[in-house]
Design goal:
It is globular and about 50 Å long. Strand 7 and strand 8 form a beta hairpin. The strands form two sheets. It has an eight-stranded mixed beta barrel. A two-stranded antiparallel sheet has the order 5-6. 4% of the residues lie in helices and 31% in strands. It has one domain: Sortase (Sortase, Chain: A, Beta Barrel). By secondary structure, the protein is mainly β. The N and C termini lie far apart (40 Å).
């Protein structure tokens, strides 16, 4: 990610942005995500199919939300993900502190927001590919409503979520409020890049966002 790209976003919720691309995990702020990448793989990441981002989401678990605890691993059986999670925040320039670039198999939790299982929208971001090939969230677009996402937490609990829908968005129209907005229900957003890599710009044109709600 170039210095210019890292400065492109800030913490304001009014600013939209995009997400993770090839070798670098894009910057997430309170507003959204930035993008950068090298696009090293020949295949494009899978795009959402017939399913789409839900117009409305389920009301959430009937039980109380969990207390705050750091997430340790994310498990997504449908696409074979079982990945370590590291905490990320923003640096002095307002760009996201990324997981280690040499470990594209690791997902990042946006630490200033809710933890998975807490009330509100917890956000996990991940690389789509790397110089070695597909990365942790390469197959995110294959998820469908009803699929399960589990997050293992530091308190020994596992927060389980049911996918409500999957959307693909041009980066200029990133759904900031739907990703970062709060509420009483515990929800999860998984984000990566989508579309066909553009070697001229060094990035992907879209974001893939998975919307999920805590299971009962």
């Amino acid at each position: 990610m170039s210095p210019a790209e890292r400065r492109a976003g800030g913490p304001s919720r009014a600013r939209t942005a995009a997400v993770v691309t090839a070798v670098t995990l894009a910057g997430a702020t309170g507003a959204g995500l930035l993008s950068a990448g090298l696009g090293s793989t020949s295949a494009s990441p899978p795009q959402p199919g017939a399913s789409a981002a839900p117009a409305t989401e389920r009301p959430g678990s009937a039980g109380p939300a969990l207390p705050r605890a750091a997430p340790l691993r994310v498990v997504i059986p449908r696409i074979g993900v079982d990945a370590e999670i590291v905490a990320v925040a923003t640096d002095d320039d307002g760009a996201l502190e990324v997981p280690p670039l040499e470990h594209p198999e690791v997902a990042g939790w946006y630490r200033p927001g809710p933890a998975p299982g807490q009330a509100g929208n917890a956000v996990l971001v991940g690389h789509v590919d790397s110089t070695r090939g597909p990365a942790v969230f390469f197959d995110l677009g294959r998820l469908r409503p009803g699929d399960t996402v589990r997050v293992v937490r530091a308190d020994g609990r596992t927060a389980a979520f049911t996918v409500d829908g999957v959307g693909a968005y041009p980066k200029a129209r990133f759904p900031t409020e739907r990703v970062y907005g709060g509420g009483a229900a515990a929800r999860l957003r998984l984000i990566t890049c989508g579309g066909r890599f553009d070697p001229r710009t060094g990035s992907y044109p879209d974001n893939i966002v998975v919307f999920a709600t805590a299971a009962g």
